[in-house]
TrEMBL record:
SUPFAM superfamilies: Aminoacid dehydrogenase-like, N-terminal domain, Isocitrate/Isopropylmalate dehydrogenase-like, NAD(P)-binding Rossmann-fold domains
Entry keywords, A to Z: Metal-binding, Multifunctional enzyme, Oxidoreductase
SMART domains: malic (SM01274), Malic_M (SM00919)
The protein's enzyme class: oxidoreductase
Protein known as: Malate dehydrogenase (Oxaloacetate-decarboxylating)(NADP+)
Source organism of this protein record: Moheibacter stercoris
Segments forming domain Malic enzyme NAD-binding: 167-403
EC number: 1.1.1.40
Pfam family, one: malic
The family this protein is said to belong to: In the C-terminal section; belongs to the phosphate acetyltransferase and butyryltransferase family. In the N-terminal section; belongs to the malic enzymes family.
InterPro entries: Aminoacid_DH-like_N_sf, Malate_Decarboxylase, Malic_enzyme_CS, Malic_N_dom, Malic_N_dom_sf, Malic_NAD-bd, Malic_NAD-bd_bact_type, ME_PTA
Length: 758
């Protein structure tokens, strides 16, 4: 069933693949290559030395080359997703996609290899011939029954891990999800009746693993394209035969009656609402065909509110897709130089995944999925791919199982060092920013950029446009802007408005009249309103006020206060807000930290401080993070000085007015940021033994200077200042912001505009 959403996705997917550098992965040099000397080492003559070492000791290949971190994703294109035999060429986007996932989730490099060969023997020989290059081989989208023979032989004949992901990756993930779904439905694996639709590579491997976990063969009905696999059939291959049941049932429809679990690894839309209605109570439906499931998610949930439903897709709850497995399974296997991926390693991955879903979900994950409260339950039976913990949890479990089962050639001695290595592979700061950008891209908004005759602003606007984060409008002198565009060869075709130019006179007049109407009783004359409107800051703000744009970004060439004044006089604070404030988001290895107020209120009173805290809580929550707020001072719960007393008073106000708010103080920042110190020293605190992620400073000096010191020492990425409390999205950059900082704040401006549209 093709929906409007599918049509939109089609368009977007084609654009995504076509834009910019072609393909989804590239090769990047890892060593210096700037001088003649570097080249003499990288290539001839120096390169001969590692060659000779490896000739003497083949294992040194792991020491001197990329082999140990390089996986081949190999396909012949005979069972590409659920699209069938579309050939090796057409399979390339999927294989490149796998490469991308290997890289971003587990820092594994991939060559995707599409082989034009259907004959299993010839295919095996081709893979064997290129295998010296790789530390592991991920077979992909090869159809059954050939896939079974190909994998079996390559496993036997090669001494590096070989895994057909559609079989075992899928089996591992779906088994983990199944264990949790059964737990939630209060059913036992030994008792439940399964219908497995599909009898190909994925379906057979999954079913075998469920049997290994306790499912009973006599409770499983498997169907292929011809219907139920039963003993009366004479067309069954070797792999299907063990699943042939003595039964009178012939069709999927008949098989479904009274079943508890439906496993779909076949093709789109083969399960009907009527069939779903014939299942038992609390049915479990894993419709895993890609790109479209055996039954549409909304249809299934609409038909059976008691269903526990999963699909292979990322845009619905419970994505049961092998992406949750292969990056981390190979990571663990490569790190111990495992000779194979065996049953013990697979079962370890199943348990690790199933258990992880029961743990509290970190904020970063909820944020990536724009879901406030992700917790173990019917709509969260399996971790999400963007969960940072997968790399440590699953890879470590797999590595350990490889060692315990005797297939590891390079055992791990120090697990905490290994854990640290795994975490360092992931650049969590970048990930967070990427997540925010992805959210912005879902619904890009029109952003007016002031100071367009600045290189950084133009470059940032170009990125915002090219990445699909927003639709820029530039404010500035057209000639100057064009000059910079030409000089730096920046391709940016967006509207440019110069409020000072003759051609903008009518536009200026319209916005000036609006402003005058707004402020005529606050001393503004019509003449002054018109004069103000030739100023870019007034003009940009009024465009947002007039609904001509969704957000305004300014400040990169002016002092903060100079840009703030027009914003306050035009857009102004939101209803009920007496003090606006500036929030900085600082990316740290332990996650994002928020600082307020960093830009506006010199010495807020206790009441104002409480308001700033409340407003910050709201904004942080909107970003998708659960705020834990520390009200900072230089004393801990023992206010003696005027500053601490003020903070203490603000905390009392907050506790009284908002008893559910996670806020406490006065507290020193080193305590607030240290879980152990907090839980041991202040067990009574409302922070509940958890590290704070929002720091409210007692005054502007401490807030502003702290984030600047932090930024200077840590060289962390900073997003902000996010201007909080305004009636419409306007944000003021720091002077001389970098391109990256402008793009980041533009992203926040888009998210801000998205929130307000809801
Ligand atoms: N979510 C995930 O992580 C994954 C999902 N999949 C999905 O599973 C599906 C199968 O992949 P894979 O096993 O690799 O491919 P195969 O080609 O090996 O197997 C396809 C199977 O589907 C069966 N089939 C086709 N049409 C029907 C139908 N109308 N009713 C019942 N069965 C049917 C075929 O039957 P016959 O034997 O008669 O030809 C065959 O057994 C694909 O949609 C794929 O996207 C696969 C791997 C991972
Ligand atoms: C997810 C996957 O590997 C498939 O659908 O084939
Ligand atoms: Mg696949």
């Amino acid at each position: 069933m093709r929906t409007e959403k599918d049509d939109k996705l089609r368009e977007e997917a084609l654009r995504y693949h076509e834009m910019g550098r072609k393909g989804k992965i590239e090769v990047v040099p890892t060593k210096n290559h700037d001088t003649q000397r570097d080249l003499a080492l990288a290539y001839s003559p120096g390169v001969a030395e590692p060659c000779l070492e490896i000739e003497k000791n083949p294992n040194d290949v792991y020491r001197y080359t990329a082999k140990g971190n390089l996986v081949a994703v190999i396909s012949n294109g005979t069972a590409v997703l659920g699209l069938g035999d579309i050939g090796p060429l057409a399979s390339k986007p999927v294989m490149e996609g796998k490469g991308l996932l290997f890289k971003i989730f587990a820092d594994i490099d991939v060559f995707d290899i599409e082989i034009d060969e259907k004959d299993p023997e010839k295919f095996i020989q081709a893979v064997k011939a290129i295998s010296p290059t790789f530390g592991g081989i991920n077979l992909e989208d090869i159809k059954a029954p050939e896939a079974f023979e190909i994998e079996r032989r390559l496993k036997e004949e090669l001494d590096i891990p070989v895994m057909h992901d559609d079989q075992h990756g899928t089996a591992i993930i779906s088994a983990a999800a199944l264990l949790n779904a059964l737990d939630l439905a209060n059913k036992k694996i030994e008792k439940v009746k399964f219908v497995v639709n599909g009898a190909g590579a994925a379906a057979i491997a999954c079913t075998k693993l469920y049997v290994a976990l306790g499912a009973k063969m006599e409770n499983i009905l498997m169907c292929d394209s011809k219907g139920v696999i039963h003993t009366r059939r004479d067309d069954l291959n070797e792999e299907k035969l063990p699943f042939a049941r003595e039964t009178e049932l012939n069709t999927l429809e008949e098989a479904m009656k009274g079943s508890d679990v439906f496993i779909g690894l076949s093709k789109a839309d083969v399960l009907t609402a009527e069939m779903l209605l014939s299942m038992s109570n609390d049915p479990i439906v894993f419709a895993m065909a890609n790109p479209n499931p055996e039954i549409n998610y909304d249809v299934a949930v609409g038909t059976r509110p008691d269903v526990i439903m999963a699909t292979g897709r990322s845009d619905y709850p419970n994505q049961v897709n092998n992406v949750l497995g292969f990056p981390f399974i190979f990571r663990g296997a490569l790190d111990v130089q495992a000779s194979k991926i065996n049953e013990e390693m697979k079962l370890a991955a199943v348990r690790a995944l199933a258990d992880l879903a029961k743990e509290p979900v970190p904020e970063m994950v909820s944020m990536a999925y724009k879901i406030g409260n992700l917790s173990y339950g019917r709509e969260y039976i399996i971790p999400k791919p963007f969960d940072n913990r997968l790399i440590t949890t699953v890879s470590m479990a797999v590595a350990k199982a490889a060692m315990d089962s005797g297939v590891a050639r390079k055992p791990i001695n120090n697990w905490s060092v290994y854990e640290e290595e795994l975490l360092n592979r992931m650049n969590s700061e970048q990930k967070l920013i990427r997540m925010l950008q992805n959210r912005a891209k879902q619904d890009p908004k029109t952003i007016v950029f002031s100071n367009a005759a600045e290189y950084n602003v133009l470059k940032a606007a170009q990125i915002v446009k090219d990445e699909g984060i927003g639709h820029p409008i530039l404010l500035g002198n057209k000639e100057k802007v064009q000059e910079i565009l030409n000089e730096f060869d920046i391709q940016l075709d967006v509207p440019i408005i110069d409020p000072k130019s003759k051609e903008s006179e009518k536009h200026v007049e319209k916005l000036a009249n609006m402003l005058w109407e707004k402020r005529q009783r606050k001393g503004m004359t019509q003449y002054n309103a018109k004069r103000f409107l030739t100023n870019r800051d007034y003009f940009g703000c009024m465009m947002v006020e007039a609904g001509e744009a969704d957000a305004f970004l300014t400040g990169s060439t002016r002092s903060y206060a100079t840009s703030l004044k027009p914003a306050l006089e035009t857009i102004g604070p939101a209803k009920g807000v007496s003090k606006v404030a500036g929030l900085m988001m600082i990316m740290t290895k332990k996650g994002p930290l928020f600082f307020a107020d960093t830009t506006i209120n010199d010495d807020p009173t206790a009441k104002e401080l409480a308001k700033i805290a409340r407003m910050t809580e709201y904004v942080v929550r909107k970003i998708g993070i659960r705020p834990r707020i520390a009200m900072l001072s230089f004393e801990n719960f023992a206010a003696r000085t005027a500053t601490s007393k003020k903070v203490s008073e603000a905390v009392a106000l907050l506790h009284k007015q908002y008893p559910d708010m996670v806020v406490d103080g006065e507290i020193q920042p080193d305590f607030a940021l240290n879980e152990e110190l907090i839980s041991k020293t202040f067990p009574f605190s409302k922070l509940n033994g958890k590290r704070a992620n929002v720091l409210i400073f007692p005054n502007l000096a401490s807030g502003n200077l702290s984030y600047k010191i932090f930024r200077g020492i840590e060289n962390s990425q900073v997003i902000g200042p996010i201007l909080m409390g305004m009636n419409k999205p306007v944000h003021i950059l720091q002077m001389r912001s970098t391109i990256e900082e402008i793009v980041n704040l533009a992203t926040i401006a888009v998210l801000d505009a998205q929130q307000r549209n809801k």
